Amino acid sequence: MRLILACIALSACVSTGGADETALAPDFTKMDWRLVEVDGKAPGYEATLNLGEQGRITGQAPCNRYFADLTREGDRFTPGMIGATRMACFQIKGEAEYFTALQGVTTQKLQPGRLTLSGGGHELVFVQPID
After folding, report:
1. What local confidence, expressed as pLDDT, does residue 24 receive?
2. Do the Cβ atoms of 66 and 56 come closer than 8 Å?
3. pLDDT at residue number 48
4. What's the CA gap between 67 and 57, in Å, rounded?
5. Cα–Cα distances in angstroms (integers) from residue 80 to residues 31, 84, 87, in the given order
6. d(CA 10, CA 29)
């Protein structure tokens, strides 16, 4: 009798485990991409890019949250004018460099777990938040 109850309990756990895993699957399109390279080098600051909202980019620059309209078509990636909050910090120079590079982007190359944006003489490489 105990063996039958154990089997019933185990099958209940197994069948509900699959449903729970599907319900908890992350939506990567709404997660931040993390900046790992600027022009082939580590940036020396942290920044993110989020593409979760159609026609918009948002993210965290070295100091401030930022946002912009976005046009994407094929490999074209064209951010509009970047707006940002106005908090001061020690990485404000890095933030200005990041915004300049991001504002000049014209193309995107999407690979599994990696997004490369280039244009205006710069290349920005982002990785997905979960390896």
Report:
1. 53
2. no
3. 97
4. 6
5. 21, 13, 21
6. 35
Which residues in 45-80 are b (16+ Cβ under 10 Å) and which e?
bebbbbbeeeeebbbbbbbbebbbebeeeeeebbbe
How far apart CA 16 and CA 54 sit, in angstroms, is 34
pLDDT above 90 as % of the chain: 65
Output the CA–CA distances (angstroms, integers) from residue 62 to 20, 69, 75, in the order listed. 36, 20, 27
Q: Token pair of 5, please?
A: 């109850």
Q: Which domains does the chain have, with CATH numbers?
A: 27-127 (2.40.128.270)
pLDDT band at 88, cuts 50/70/90?
confident
Identity of the residue numbered 8: I
pTM beyond 0.85: no
